[in-house]
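WARN no homologs supplied; continuing
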Amino acid sequence: MGIILAIALVFSGGVSLAANNAIPGDFLYPVKVSINEEVRGTLSLSTEAKAKWEARLAERRLEESAELEVKGKLNAETQANLEERFQAHMERIRELIIKLEEKGNFEAAAAITTGIEASIRNRLNAAASANANAEGNTGGTMANELRNVATAALNTLATIKADLEVKMSEDDRANANTNANTNVNVNSGNNDSNTDVEAEGSGSLNIGL
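OK structure emitted
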């Protein structure tokens, strides 16, 4: 009954909209992460769309951590929860990238990886800038822990991207070889046809003599 009521509230608009701006510790934060984000995720039908949405969620967790840190409201429990959620998003992204690879869609996988990498890097830079500009904020070790997790994620993404580049190069070579073989076969067929025509023409000439 509670779930049905929550979903009804989400689709009513007001509560859902308010929850989108919630941060950990707010009354509506559970609505944001457990309902709003889940409902939005179901609307992402393709593997690419799902990966992009998970990337946005990972970025949100970094944004929330930075905002709480600047406000001096980031405690150990909240930080641990954000780290766990961030890692879960990154794991789902990795699984979705693998699915794209299995389909041979290396370009899409590489594009998503590059986009996620840039997004996380920008968010880390923004968080560092905000922390430096906040009066009296010394940047506690708890916030640094999530930054370390995000940095490790960047390293993982860089490895995935390098692997994808190798696979795309191999795929390009394979396609080039296939096209070359096709052209050879076509040319060979044309030559055979020309030879047959010449032979037929020669035969007609002999008969005429």
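The two ends are 100 Å apart (CA to CA).
OK
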